[in-house]
Design brief:
The complex is a heterodimer of chains A (379) and B (371). With 379 residues, chain A is α+β, with helices and mostly antiparallel strands. Chain A has helices at residues 25-41, 47-60, 75-106, 112-135, 150-166, 172-185, 200-219, 223-241, 260-292, 296-300, 308-343, 366-374, and strands spanning 19-21, 62-64, 67-71, 137-139, 142-146, 187-189, 192-196, 243-245, 248-252, 345-348. Chain A has a ten-stranded antiparallel beta sheet. The chains are: A alpha+beta (379), B alpha+beta (371).
């Protein structure tokens, strides 16, 4: 019977693995406030390091089954990726310009297909940026990684995009499902291969009425944030519930009202800060008027004299506003949204992720550089 | 094994381990004990699985309350996790280089310093380098390319205004007479294409490759040939100075360089827009003044006064007042009127058009414009 102790016992079905977020909100807030100030001081160049700090904080404080993840990307990589992307994009922009002239000369508006080429480039960047982030994600000493081709992805995204236009947006669920399937098929955790099980139809069933309501929401002010929050929550829930890595299955119970608080907080803070900025501008104008001894009308009226001190004061106020707004956005839309989503997540079959062998290569940050250079955002 | 300071079994965990070890080759969670000898000994079930030199140990990201370290000489993803605070402190005190790779205050200061240097160099290039490059490069742009850009712009503008070329025969003859006289007086050799477009916008413009267009709206407001001649001479000045190509190179370079700054900061759109507008407006004001100077010279060469042109513009724009002058792309009309007035000389040359020709020119677009 001594032999028995060497044979592993078949474990009983386990409860869903614990997913939790342990980061301090105050710590995150002070990090992004400081980071935003540094961004202003550095004319924006600090953005690479701030984005890295934010990811490091979110990853390190997210733990699955008792062990927290780790983000190993660095700001310097992003910065170099940006420079390389720039070096590649600059001649492309010039060629684009010359070809546009040629095309426009032959036929007015003939340059639209060239615009599509840039759209394809943007999709490529989205794929490669995700690959960069994934290969910098570590859990239990093993990294995630991704293969597949950014151009193959861009081709798919273009074709589905065409369908999206033709169907006035109704094809969106199927587009997302197909693109996510491609991304997840090529995602791996060590030797576990990823898969996306979400079906376009499920997403459609859940959200089609939002599509019907969207024209109304564009006209009635308070409706739009609600509608958008509903849409995003349904999208996240559907997306998370479709993710698989080998036998590991994700599931989300995110209520469709989950993002109301986050979005309305952002709107509330933005309005408050804008009002403060407005009051500050008014006060500065009054102050400048009273000091320089001209009437209020002379300062703001249609025949106003340009006052340099006033412009400087308003400029400072504007920078303060930008700082406050970017902090609010990052705290609510990045951190809080992440915690809300995580709280809804369950991971089933985590035992399938025991004894995973490491594998995969690191990807370069070039994709993120392109995404930055082309101003595309995607996940 | 010569463990100087072995600490075993003093913290939680089913096996009495004080740390977790991931070897970086598989994700197996290995409960281990650690001992501080001349190196860090990591043991599982009594046997050593890894020995890490203290000077190679680096801190990795971890949630609060956990010390997670990696080792430079171990597989890059191998991690040791210590959840016991005193043990973590002990390891930290021995690992002298624990935070050597962290950015820290000095790293941030370096980023700030280099960013400022980069920003200053970009600003200097925008203010001095780009205008210089535009002035030097514009005349070097091949004529064929310039013409092509002009053709593309012409197609776009005609589409935009839905404008047709006015083609009344007598009007056309009068217009050609006027343009040819100016062309000769201006003394430049390049080919010139000019036409009146049937749109009620009161304006005139030049396009790359020597194209000058007068819009019907301006012609209607004109009261004498000299007014129109001045405007056309001004546009010829733009052609002569390659102002379109200069603006193209200048604005392209400025947008690109300013776009390097700020990136995705919230509200950066407004910042970029404001700084670009400022720089471009000042460059454009300079070009306008240059074209005015040219117009003055041409009109003088013809023995005519440049003042009527400014009067026509004043009639179109009215008094512009002292608005936000730093942002406007043209000099103020009253300033131009004042300048042209100062340059006024007694008329010595013959009228540029006869009364009949002027009448024909005014009627060039007729009642129904032809293509």
């Amino acid at each position: 019977m001594d032999q028995m102790s060497f044979i592993p016992q078949v474990p009983p079905p386990l409860p869903p693995a614990q997913v939790s977020f342990t980061g301090e909100r105050g710590e995150f807030r002070s990090m992004v406030t400081k980071g935003a100030a540094l961004e202003l001081v550095t004319f924006g160049f600090y953005r690479f390091w701030l984005a890295t700090d934010i990811r490091r904080h979110l990853w390190a404080n997210t733990s699955l089954d008792g062990d927290s993840a780790e983000y190993t990307g660095r700001g310097k990589e992003l910065f170099i990726g940006f420079l390389v992307a720039l070096a590649i994009l600059l001649p492309i922009y010039l060629a684009y310009f010359l070809i546009t002239i040629e095309a426009e000369r032959l036929q007015e508006l003939a340059s639209i297909p060239l615009f599509l080429a840039f759209y394809a480039f943007g999709q490529f960047a989205i794929y490669r940026a995700r690959r960069y982030r994934l290969t910098r994600t570590i859990w239990r000493g093993v990294r995630f990684w991704m293969d597949g081709s950014g151009w193959a992805y861009a081709g798919r995204a273009m074709l589905w995009g065409l369908l999206l236009v033709v169907t006035l947006g109704l094809a969106l669920p199927w587009r997302e499902a197909a693109l996510e399937r491609y991304k997840m098929q090529h995602s791996h955790y060590g030797n576990l291969q990823g898969k996306f099980d979400g079906r376009g139809w499920e997403f459609f069933k859940n959200a089609w009425w939002l599509w019907l309501l969207s024209p109304i929401a564009l006209l009635v002010f308070p409706a739009l944030p609600f509608l958008y929050a509903e849409f995003k929550a349904r999208e996240w829930r559907w997306w998370l519930s479709g993710i698989r890595f080998g036998g590991v299955r994700l599931e989300s119970t995110l209520p469709s009202t989950a993002f109301y608080g986050v979005y309305w907080s952002v709107i509330g803070w933005s309005m408050l800060f804008s009002m403060i900025f407005g009051a500050y501008t008014g006060a500065c104008t009054g102050l400048v008027a009273s000091i320089s001894g001209v009437s209020f009308e002379q300062v703001i009226g249609p025949n106003s004299q340009t006052s340099i001190p006033l412009l400087v004061l308003i400029g400072i106020g504007y920078l303060g506003l930008a700082l406050a707004l970017s902090t609010v956005m990052r705290v609510y839309l990045q951190r809080d949204l992440w915690t809300v989503v995580l709280a809804s997540a369950n991971v089933h079959g985590i035992e399938a992720a025991a004894n995973v062998r490491a594998g995969g290569e690191l990807a370069s940050a070039l994709g993120e550089g392109f995404a930055d250079g082309l101003d595309v955002a995607g996940f | 094994m010569g463990a100087m300071d072995s600490v075993q079994g003093d913290s939680g965990g089913a096996t009495g381990a004080q740390a977790l070890y991931f070897d970086g080759l598989s994700n197996t969670r290995r409960p281990v004990t650690i001992a501080f000898s001349d190196q860090l000994d990591i043991r599982q079930d009594g046997s050593i699985v890894a020995r890490w030199a203290y000077s190679d140990i680096r801190r990795s990201d971890s949630p609060a309350g956990i010390l997670r370290v990696a080792c430079l000489s171990a597989p890059p993803l191998a991690r040791l996790e210590i959840r016991d605070a005193t043990l973590a402190a002990k390891l930290a005190s021995r690992s002298t280089e624990l935070d050597a790779h962290h950015l820290g205050r000095r790293g941030v200061a370096r980023i700030v310093g280099w960013s400022l240097a980069a920003a200053i160099s970009i600003i200097v290039v925008v203010l001095f380098g780009v205008p210089l490059a535009a002035d030097r490069l514009a005349p070097l742009v091949p004529k064929a390319l310039e013409r092509r850009i002009g053709d593309a712009a012409e197609a776009q503008i005609k589409g935009l205004f839905g404008a047709k070329v006015c083609g009344d025969r007598e009007g056309q003859a009068a217009f050609s007479t006027l343009v040819n006289r100016l062309h000769a007086a201006a003394g430049f050799d390049g080919p010139l294409e000019s036409a009146v477009l049937s749109t009620s916008v009161p304006n005139a413009f030049a396009l790359p490759g020597g194209k000058v267009f007068l819009l019907k709206g301006l012609l209607e407001k004109a009261e004498s040939p000299d007014e129109i001649a001045g405007v056309l001479a001004h546009e010829l000045g733009h052609v002569k100075h390659h102002d379109n190509m200069r603006a193209l190179i200048h604005n392209g370079g400025t947008s690109f360089l300013v776009g390097l700054l700020f990136g995705d900061i919230t509200g950066s759109g407004a910042l970029i827009f404001a700084s670009r507008s400022l720089v471009e407006a000042s460059y454009s004001r300079e070009a306008e003044e240059g074209a005015d100077t040219f117009a003055i010279e041409v009109m003088r060469a013809l023995g005519r006064s440049p003042k009527p042109m400014a009067e026509l513009m004043f009639r179109v724009t009215g008094k512009e007042g002292s608005g936000f002058t730093i942002l406007s792309s043209h000099p103020l009309t009253e300033d131009r009127l004042a300048r042209m007035g100062k340059e006024e000389r007694p008329v010595t040359g013959a009228p540029l058009l006869t009364a009949e020709e002027w009448k024909a020119l005014k009627a060039i677009c007729g009642s129904a414009a032809k293509t």
